[in-house]
Amino acid sequence: MLIFERIGSFFGIVFGIAADPVNLAVLFGSVLLGILFGAMPGLTSTLGVALLTALTFGMDTALAMICLLAIYVGGTYGGSYSSILINIPGTAAAAATALDGYPLACKGEGGRAIGLTTTASAIGTVISMLFVVSISPIISSFALQFTSFEFFLLALFGILISGTLTSPDLVIKGWISGFLGLFLACVGRDLLQFYPRFTFGFMELESGIEVVPVLIGAFGIPQIIQVLKDRTKIAEAQKLQRIIPEIGTVIRNIPAIIRSALIGVGIGSVPGIGEDIAGWVSYGTAKNTSKHPETFGKGELKGVLASETANNACVGGAMIPLLNLGIPGSPPAAMLLGALMLHNVTPGPMITFEHPTFILEVAAILLLASCAMWITGMLLAKQVVKVLRIPAQLFMPIIGLLCIIGSYSLGLNIFNLYLMLPVGIICYFLIEMGYPIAPLVIGVILGPMADENLRRALMVSQGSFLPIFQRPVALILFIIIVWTVISQFEFYDRIKKKVVLFILRKRERSTAGSAETNNSGEKTTD
Amino acid sequence: MLEKDKLRKADIFSGGIMALFGLWIISQGLKMPMKDSWGGVQNVWFVSPALFPLFVGAMITLLGVLLMRTALKTVGFNGFKRALGWLASPDLIRFLKSPATMRFYAIAGLFTCFVYIQVPRIDFFLCSVLFLFVFITMFYFADDELLKKFFLFYLGINAFFLMFFVFDLQTKLEPVMSQLAGWSAGFGIQTDLEPALAYPVDWITMAFTFVYFIYIGVAIRKTPELRKKFWISLVLSVVPPFLIGTIFKYFLLVPMPAEGLAVWLLDDIWYSYFQSWFS
Hints:
The structure holds two protein chains of two kinds. By secondary structure, chain A is mostly helical.
């Protein structure tokens, strides 16, 4: 009965949103803006969400969520345009798409590939939306039993796993990046005793570092510097033919689409890991499970479908830990968390009590955004492709101006600008030296949660760490954290090899021993 | 990202910097109340505000040292010595003067001047036009020599502004501006010009934008293929600030960081003609 009630209220929300023309206009406008952001090399969905956060500040929460989720969905999908047509991924999420997308476009099948990826992306988003609706109540009720130790460990796990999986170079750099984020979160008066930490007498730092300007700086400024410094040249776009996909091809690929969507949801729900990893993992899985892996990289439609379905399914996946635990599942989700906080919505286990219909609203927006994305993709693909001709040198300075006014407008504080720029330049150097930025951002967001919960937990236990080993969830999280860290070192591989060898030898000995006993038994009977 | 070989050498330094940074965090953490009383509350170590910074500092130090160790193991001591030697060699100067590095200086310099000197003090619309005009022309023309010239020009403008604000020339200009207002009154245009003359720095910004316009025109006179790019740059420098600024100022009701001549003019237009449409 409860399920039917939930389904009923879900569709009620869907129709409620769709019935308002303002909502629809914002939805389609934001999806289109997202597609443009995703399609233009150098701009990302994270940057799109970051810049739009400033614009949605004055809107009511529901409309702001429509705007931000729509740009997130559109931006994730939009990256496929430049990947397929000019062999430059518009976003990191679409990097795997370029491997097979561009060869398809060279064969004159660019339109077909875009049509199919549009459909697959929409299906991927819808599947992820189903997971948001179905899994969220379970996770929420489970998370309600968490105590401060669990929350501290969860925040630490989020930072470490994000550092481990997003690091383009050494894993240590990912972890350092995460701890740098935690340091930034320490700035300001501490939440328990209001002691000023690292404020250096600046009044503006007393309330801590504002998250959104830091995020805008961390994602926007390095992007502008990289694109303009390296003078990225854009190739001539391949021509588009028929875009509407053949239903037969879609149906034939449904199992692959569902598999990729599940991979996307799974990866998206791991804290801090973005759509790019989902795309690569799904592409790799499609290649490994294919009967003809040699066709991948030469224009295989399944490769394009795998990465595009997974990266869009990641959007819903990233919403699961964000809404239920307050831990962002991807960098754009981190931006969304910042936006939600601005609108006085605090995601976490209490969200179902404080805002009972919020998760359903998010799911409804995801459903509508995927429909809007499909319609916009089908109708405007040929027009959107034209933006690929705009040189980055023309729009990047304007993005710079948007970063500045966006950072300032949240809080109307010039100091945000003074902070945003150095953070951006430092992040640029970190990126150049192989440090990932996502863990830093996750660290800034999860820092207060980790700090507060660690001290609160120790207060309850009177300074004892023993409860970690007494509470099952805390223990599991602790073991996972220790394993995540240890498994990255060489000695772990050596120990693992020795253990495996030891077990194999023991098995061999026991089988040899039992064979000998059998032989001797046979001899005795003889 | 750098190449792998260079990256490892850079890791030795970045790991060292991180370790030192971690130590600094620890030293700052140790200054925070650990067991003594703060705000009437007797502290214990596990509620101390220092606990988390100490943990973070210790982790950054440890990871920094680990990074250094890993990098040293890969590069070897000789590699490290070579990297140190590179820092004292003419190669470093060559790197610092390379076109890509120049482009980085240009972007960082533009943003720094804009954010720290102009945005807080000059009308947002006007300084944005100048910023975009310089920024777009510097990179859209795709000529490193022109980039250098334009960047130096922008630096010169900002050096002037810096002096202007440091020596408070605005106050010193006030008698001149009131004199101008007096002359304008003589011509019967007092009501129109008097408020506008209250923003000398905005007039100077507009003058600099015009001078920059002329300067580019002179710089590209021998390269006709840049003329089209020049006009595109001009349009894209003027339209977006007014579009973005108008949305923020009049639709989202966000006051601009500094409001001057352009805002005064836009306010006049907005409240006289458009506000009734949207209210």
